[in-house]
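Q: Please design a sequence for this.
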């Protein structure tokens, strides 16, 4: 998963930055109704959004994120959890981030695009990159399984 600078800025400017700068980070040893201490935070809003997006997309260990963002383990964990909540809240307000089923005409248009590529997928409106569809099936399942296993070994 990748995110371009325009999308990053869109998320940052449409709620994430304000939420980061005005919401106290939840802690068990402080009041949740107090004012946030921005000067005491290790990351600004852009840094926090970057941390959360790296956490979601990169698959690297949290210790690596701690090194990349120069924060200690407890801070990294707290910022990731808090940032995820803020990201969700922000994305829920952005119409372009909404997931919705296509309507009648839109569905038909998408279905035709799919059928043009995969003629047996009638009724589909979306597919995935790298979609692997069986184009031929052998009568003997033992041979079929052996061929499939060999193909998978070759892919690795």
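A: Design:
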């Amino acid at each position: 998963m990748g995110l371009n600078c325009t999308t990053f800025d869109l998320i940052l400017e449409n709620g994430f930055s304000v939420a980061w700068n005005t919401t106290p980070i939840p802690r068990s040893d402080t009041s949740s109704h107090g004012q946030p201490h921005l000067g005491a935070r290790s990351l600004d809003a852009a840094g926090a959004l970057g941390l959360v997006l790296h956490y979601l997309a990169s698959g690297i260990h949290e210790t690596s994120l701690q090194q990349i963002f120069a924060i200690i383990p407890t801070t990294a964990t707290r910022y990731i959890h808090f940032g995820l909540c803020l990201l969700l809240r922000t994305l829920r307000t952005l119409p372009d981030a909404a997931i919705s089923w296509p309507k009648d005409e839109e569905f038909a248009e998408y279905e035709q695009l799919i059928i043009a590529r995969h003629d047996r997928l009638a009724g589909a409106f979306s597919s995935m990159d790298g979609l692997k569809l069986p184009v031929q099936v052998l009568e003997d399942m033992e041979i079929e399984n052996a061929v499939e296993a060999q193909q998978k070994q070759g892919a690795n």
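Q: Thanks. Anything notable?
A: Helices lie at 5-22, 45-57, 62-69, 73-93, 104-117, 141-155. The chain has a mean pLDDT of 83.
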